[in-house]
Amino acid sequence: MVVPSMSLPILEINRLDHYGIVAGTIKELGLIELIDDVFGRDKREEVSTGECVAAMILNGLGFTSQPLSLTERFFKSKPLELLFGREGIYAEHFNKNKLSRTLDKVYEYGFDKLFHNLSMHSK
């Protein structure tokens, strides 16, 4: 008896490792929203300033010996929709130009001032 071949779905496997715990903590603290409240959110942006800061935190916990400009490569194998809690977010959004502009915004605002604002917020 010959069984007709069945087309199996192609599965993509991404490792979550410890990033799920860190991303969950970022969500629970509301860091992305708090940072976006400070800097605003432009609807034309693919990722917000808060999401870029969260990406840099996640990157710093896993790609420590690599320059920040390789963040895009770091996120290629990560389940970004799960980590950031929304659809339509891709590794290409965290390119060196976007991350540089984010760091410039935070620098102009003041790192100490931003840290103070975030630490004074309680949920």
Structural class: mainly alpha
Radius of gyration: 18 Å
Query: In this structure, how is the largest beta sheet organized?
Result: none
Which stretches of 5+ consecutive residues score pLDDT under 50?
none
| Number of structurally distinct domains | 1
Distance between the termini: 64 Å
Percent of residues in helical segments? 40-55%
Q: Mean pLDDT, nearest integer?
A: 87
- Counting DSSP H or I runs of 4 or more residues, the number of helices is 7
Number of strands: 0
Shape from CA axes?
globular
Strand content: under 5%
SSE series: HHHHHHH
Question: Can you walk through the features of this model?
Answer:
The chain is an all-alpha fold and 123 residues long. The protein has one domain (19-120). Helix content is 54%, strand content 0%. The chain has 7 helices and no strands. It has helices at 19-29, 31-39, 49-60, 71-75, 80-84, 96-109, 111-120. The longest helix is centred in the C-terminal third of the chain and has 14 residues, at 96-109. The chain starts with 18 loop residues before the first helix and ends with a helix. The mean pLDDT is 87.
Main attributes of the structure:
123 residues; mainly alpha
